[in-house]
User: What shape does this take?
Amino acid sequence: MNVQLVMENLAEKKKAIFESTLQLIKENGFHGSPISLVAKNACCAAGTIYHYFDSKDTLIMELHSYVKSRLLEVLTNESESELDFKEQFTNRWVRICNFYIENPDILYFIEQFANSPYKDRGDINEEDKFKETVIAFYNRAMEKGVIKEMNQELIRTLVHSSIVTTAKMVLSGKITVSEADLMQMAGIMWKGLLIEK
Amino acid sequence: MNVQLVMENLAEKKKAIFESTLQLIKENGFHGSPISLVAKNACCAAGTIYHYFDSKDTLIMELHSYVKSRLLEVLTNESESELDFKEQFTNRWVRICNFYIENPDILYFIEQFANSPYKDRGDINEEDKFKETVIAFYNRAMEKGVIKEMNQELIRTLVHSSIVTTAKMVLSGKITVSEADLMQMAGIMWKGLLIEK
Amino acid sequence: MNVQLVMENLAEKKKAIFESTLQLIKENGFHGSPISLVAKNACCAAGTIYHYFDSKDTLIMELHSYVKSRLLEVLTNESESELDFKEQFTNRWVRICNFYIENPDILYFIEQFANSPYKDRGDINEEDKFKETVIAFYNRAMEKGVIKEMNQELIRTLVHSSIVTTAKMVLSGKITVSEADLMQMAGIMWKGLLIEK
Amino acid sequence: MNVQLVMENLAEKKKAIFESTLQLIKENGFHGSPISLVAKNACCAAGTIYHYFDSKDTLIMELHSYVKSRLLEVLTNESESELDFKEQFTNRWVRICNFYIENPDILYFIEQFANSPYKDRGDINEEDKFKETVIAFYNRAMEKGVIKEMNQELIRTLVHSSIVTTAKMVLSGKITVSEADLMQMAGIMWKGLLIEK
DNA sequence: AATGAATGAGGTTTCATTCAT
DNA sequence: CATGAATGAAACCTCATTCAT
Assistant: This one.
């Protein structure tokens, strides 16, 4: 077996553990997701998890990074770099929202993580490409005078809330939305950010 | 000691346990809030807590009801029943936001609770006066043709997100707001709900 | 309230506690009979029980004495002192058996007590009139050459087993017995004790 | 280590826990046998016990099955299948009695178990080979017209009582018995079951 | 690398007992 | 006398983690 394959298998195993964890956390929360269950759900032994992660905390933190990297993939789309701000914003809003709808495990993990003491335990210097990418977008839009001067964190959180709320509504079956509906919702959010003229 | 006083003392103890729990959950999350700590923090023995609550779960659920009832007090304000929709909305938005800013324990508890398996464990038939009051308001506004026809849950969640996000920003020190700023934010949210003419 | 009445009330309370304890022990065993439940079942406060008994152990030991004294009452019957051994034996056997059938709580308490560490905790010098009465009977019968010379303890236990077993069968509904059947069973036991000629 | 050995070690551990439990229950009753003591006595950690048993109740119930299976071994003796009823009965009575005398832990456990709420907690459909074997014997004897038609449960309990009582007497030192004495006692019991001619 | 039995600290909960009222 | 809130030791049980295989 060559190095490449080993690496892939390793990645496979890690991914299985990640998916197992996501699923359990969605269903039972951090509380109800002991390593023993994570292991069983990932078809491996508890000890195996400690080959890949130093501790349960490490597992959670790395899972968070993994989830963020997947979100970054969804966010990024080279082909659209030439679009105007509104179209980029709308496309991104819809893509992330659809991603959450298709990956509810990730949505609930992100939400639980953000409201847990884990969120403050991360390496303070750890870069967050997702966050940086979003901030860069708003910075450019502000510099160009397209959107209001507002606190970055505030905008990001409000916009993200709108995505999360929409995805949760869809997942709970309380509303059904077409692609056009999502575009429209994104449009409303964008309008809120625009400089009023 | 008469009955009234006994009742008050009883309430006092329960309240002390509630406050202790809120504080610990804010600091350490559900995880990091064992009964032993809750007890020490409330200046009582662990066993005492089981005098008032059947289990830790019950404590959390009753704490949630307690918090909701305090929020309801903040929401309700008889004197303003004659104001127009916008003023009522704005006043309520600001009052709740200020309440969260002054009671961060409650803010963080509400958020953690909403993103935990606890939220689905409540009595399905338990009434939620807070929710009902808010829904009644939007219903009236829709009937009068003041705001758009939208899914109730969606509006409520989005508006609540905006309050929570703002309060968190203030608490984290990332922004400082005057009363006027809050009024303005509430105004922006209201504008988003209006029927466009 | 005169002294007599006070004494009676005191006795009443103690008796209520005894009955409550018997009932709970029958249903849940020693395990499942905490003082709090005993109190509730006896319509008094937990603290009250400690006015009458030094400790839970004391309660159990005194309950045992109480039960033994009630058994003694059943055993003793002055009017029959002139009967022959067989008739006395048979009458007593049947009376005790009927008593157990009518007081299952007591039957199960006696049985559980006898198979618990409590049985060795009693005051070693405490007299047991019930036991003494039974032994006296067998002694007289042996002296008269009516029954075999056997270990007292052995006879007593075997005869008591036969009573308990019969009562349990009746209580479980596995058999139904007439008074005559009981007389017959007692007769069989007596035959086993007789000197074979 | 091969599978066979692993299985044996597993059995070893479970057996050690069983023996530890039996010993403690004999000395202190169910009450005085907390898991912590059972563990210490079995030279393992408390947690280990929960590796093998779901709960303390499960441990007790499985211990009961284990004890019953050991009794079944003692009861069963292929070589004697050709003996007549009386000899089979006598041999079995003596074997079980000797087993209790040599294994007082088991005797006291059986007795305490039978007089505890545990006895009603077992799986209702769980087979009890010991019981079945005994019943089969009495059935055959009844069919052949050797012993009286009596309630099965009644016979079984009375005979078992006689064994238990005898074993307890011996263990308490109140009587000493030779093998011949035991044979004689068994014979007396058998005589009681015979159809009188 | 993978396993899963074993550990034991620590969590939730129970309950005999006390004591101020 | 009676109460029942309060106590805290100790029970049961969980689970992150280790380690021999």
Q: What stands out?
A: Residues 67 and 137 of chain D are 21 Å apart (CA to CA). The first helix of chain D runs from residue 3 to 28. The interface with chain C takes residues 27-32, 108, 111-112, 114-117, 151, 153-154, 157-158, 161-162, 165-166, 168-169, 172, 174-175, 188, 192 of chain D (CB under 8 Å).
